[in-house]
Amino acid sequence: MIVSLRSFKLKTRMMLILGMMALLQTGFIGFFALTYLTHSLDEQIGQRALHVAKTIAGIPEVIEAVESRDSELLQPLTLDLASINDARFVVIGDRNGIRLAHPSWERVGKPMYDDDGDYNEPALLYGKPYIQKAVGSLGASVRGKAPIFDRNNENVVGIVSVGFMLTSVEDIINRYRTTLYIVIVLSFGLSVLTGLWFANHFKKAIFGLEPEQIGRLFQERNATLESVREGIIAVNSEGRITTFNRAAVETLGLDANTKLTDRPIEDVLPDSRLMDVLKSGKPHFDKEIWLQDRNLIVNRLPLLQDNEITGVVSSFRRKDELDAVSKQLTQIQQYADTLRSQSHEYSNKLHTIAGLIQIGATDEALALIGQETQSHQALIHLMVEAVPDPILAGCLLGKYNRAKELGLRLEIDPESSMKEIPDHIPREELVSIIGNLIDNALEATLSNKRLEVRLSMTDLGNDLIFEIEDEGQGIHEKDHSRIFLKGVTSKKGEGHGYGLHLVQKLLQKLGGTILLEPGDTMGSRFTVYIPKSFENQN
């Protein structure tokens, strides 16, 4: 049964892989070394045997004894020469290959070829020395054979064969083989220990996760990045892009086929401040910037590892998208305020009417009902005639009820007319502008303990004009230029200073303007001009 490596833990896998690599490498190197050593030893012994054979073939006494076929002289001489040169044997034959000397007397006089099957032709016929490896009567040996020439060095008169047994070579090889086995075992053990140490170190670096888990997390990360509507770009410590998603490419208007990975961020986005965060380590949150001709809200966060900055990740989204969400929330909030105000006001009226009925003041109850009915009918008639747009009319009715709830009056000029609102002007933006201005006017009037806020509207001419006047304490002339800045407010506490800033931003988008001047009696007057023919360029 074949077991997959994936069924083992990372630590076991690394030990097995490193151990097998050590076995294969050591085995391969050992096999090559033994083969090379065997070949080298054979060659060295052969050269030594040939050198001894040549030396013996040149001894005058040997030449003379061969020519006279004097085996009595040659026999002890060859034994002495073999002993002196540590050779296993020295054999001498005549020009016909008949032994004249041999370690065994009984083989003297017999042909040399019957010992190793070699007819000694290179030496006897051509006078050339050579090396032979063969198994003879004395065992496997390496032999060096040299021709014996006569005294005039003209004719071959015999042959000398010097042999060294291969058992010594095998003994050397066996010693090396044993050493090799020991080295293989030690290498395997060392590799297992190295694998164990490296696996522990590696597991710590990857938070104890297995490779398959890392692969799944990588896929999940990519899926998560692509599912996020915000653009995301991350750079490493060298400022090179390591991560980005499709939303980032689309938001920045980059070519979808552009290769971004491993490119310097400054080459892709020269105006990016990611390198500043990389150097300072200070995060940026909700920063409004212009990049690639786009107004973005950006967050930049440094990546830390062992208190060292290893990179920066940035998330960003187009500001107009956030503004759209903000406007939708504002509209919903205004609808909720309208319903709450109406509910609260009618609840109070109903309680008052119920009380009058209980005490028997029916005439007063009927008068109150008639008064409320007449007041609301007049307002509703004005809205139907002057403001046919349901969204703007609903906003004004809500603010009217809100004013009554606060004990104030929102007086809408009966000569007002707002019938020609162009279709290109988003109603939620118009509601945000008028709603914020009325809310500010109500708060300013209430804080000054006055009662009335006045609103007039006209759509005559080329602009839509709204005029909201309060009875507050007014705004000092030196603050007129900064009252529309984000966070600037005269109110106490947090969460203020955004309404007028939002109004100005929305008007800039619509091509409109807003003027601030003192009211006729006290307080401030805000006049809004929104051109009918302005085309939204954003």
Question: How would you characterize the overall build of this protein?
Answer:
It is built from 15 helices and 15 strands. The mean pLDDT is 80. It starts with 9 loop residues before the first helix and ends in a 7-residue tail after the last strand. By secondary structure, the protein is an alpha+beta fold. The chain folds into 3 domains: 1-227, PAS domain (Beta-Lactamase); 229-318, Beta-Lactamase; 376-531, 2-Layer Sandwich (Heat Shock Protein 90). It comes from Grimontia celer.
Question: How would the blueprint of this fold be written?
Answer:
Layout: H1 10-57, H2 60-67, H3 71-84, E1 89-94, E2 99-101, H4 113-116, H5 121-124, E3 130-136, E4 139-149, E5 156-165, H6 167-205, H7 211-227, E6 231-236, E7 241-244, H8 246-252, H9 265-268, H10 274-280, E8 284-291, E9 294-305, E10 308-318, H11 319-358, H12 362-386, H13 390-405, E11 409-412, H14 427-447, E12 452-458, E13 463-469, H15 499-510, E14 513-518, E15 524-531
Parallel strand pairs: 11-12
Antiparallel strand pairs: 1-2, 1-5, 3-4, 4-5, 6-7, 6-10, 8-9, 9-10, 12-13, 13-15, 14-15
Helix pairs in contact: 1-6, 11-12, 11-13, 11-14, 13-14, 14-15
Short description:
This protein has 538 residues and is an alpha+beta fold. The protein has helices spanning 10-57, 60-67, 71-84, 113-116, 121-124, 167-205, 211-227, 246-252, 265-268, 274-280, 319-358, 362-386, 390-405, 427-447, 499-510; strands at 89-94, 99-101, 130-136, 139-149, 156-165, 231-236, 241-244, 284-291, 294-305, 308-318, 409-412, 452-458, 463-469, 513-518, 524-531. A 5-stranded antiparallel β-sheet has the order 2-1-5-4-3. Strands 7-6-10-9-8 form a 5-stranded antiparallel β-sheet.
